[in-house]
Write a structure and sequence with these properties.
By secondary structure, the protein is of the alpha/beta class. 48% of the residues lie in helices and 17% in strands. The protein has helices spanning 14-26, 42-50, 70-75, 95-102, 118-130, 134-163; strands at residues 3-8, 31-35, 57-65, 82-87, 111-112. It binds 5-O-phosphono-beta-D-ribofuranose.
Length: 164
């Protein structure tokens, strides 16, 4: 199976990023986590992303806050799918990173999840890899079934408490 690379602009993004890593770990996807910045170490980003396909990666996740250019910088240098996690910062509550991530020019797409939406970034990365992996696709179906079962359980509790 292909690997996932999660890049983050700063180690201050790690508490958010960890959730994506945990999801991928639960799905059994080999994941590399690195700190690299589109602004502070752009040459390292270009080097890592330029070699990502040859190094066995199938999906890139890029987490950054403020003027979040990391995902765009990744997408500029690879044909692998890139998922952006806009990270919330104090001044604009993550809206800055959301808009910086989502407003990509035509021809250079980045799939952007919600502000701090690291769980969905992990799930989406696994879903992309699952297209070519029967075993992972089966795990994904079980994950979805688990969500449904929890939802039904919640419904029973609420119904018993409120209307029962
Ligand atoms: C971005 O600036 C990082 O991704 C981080 O979210 C934000 C602040 O970085 P630090 O000042 O915490 O290193 O590049």
């Amino acid at each position: 199976m292909k690997k996932v690379a999660i890049l983050m602009g700063s180690d201050s993004d790690l508490p958010v990023v960890r959730k994506a890593y945990d999801v991928l770990k639960d799905f059994g996807v080999e994941t590399t986590v690195r700190v690299m910045s589109a602004h502070r170490s752009p040459d390292l980003v270009a080097e890592f992303i330029g070699a990502a396909e040859a190094n066995g990666y199938g999906v890139i996740i890029a987490a950054a806050g403020m003027a979040a250019h990391l995902a765009g910088a990744c997408a500029a240098n690879t044909v692998l799918p890139v998922i952006a996690i806009p990270v919330k910062s104090k001044a604009l509550e993550g809206l800055d990173a959301l808009l910086s991530s989502v407003m990509m020019p035509p021809g250079v797409p980045v799939a952007t999840v919600a502000i701090d939406g690291a769980v969905n970034a992990g799930v989406l990365a696994a879903q992309i890899l699952a297209v070519g992996d029967d075993n992972l696709r089966q795990k994904m179906k079980e994950y979805k079934a688990g969500q449904k079962a929890k939802n039904i359980e919640s419904d029973k509790k609420v119904t018993a408490e409120i209307s029962g």
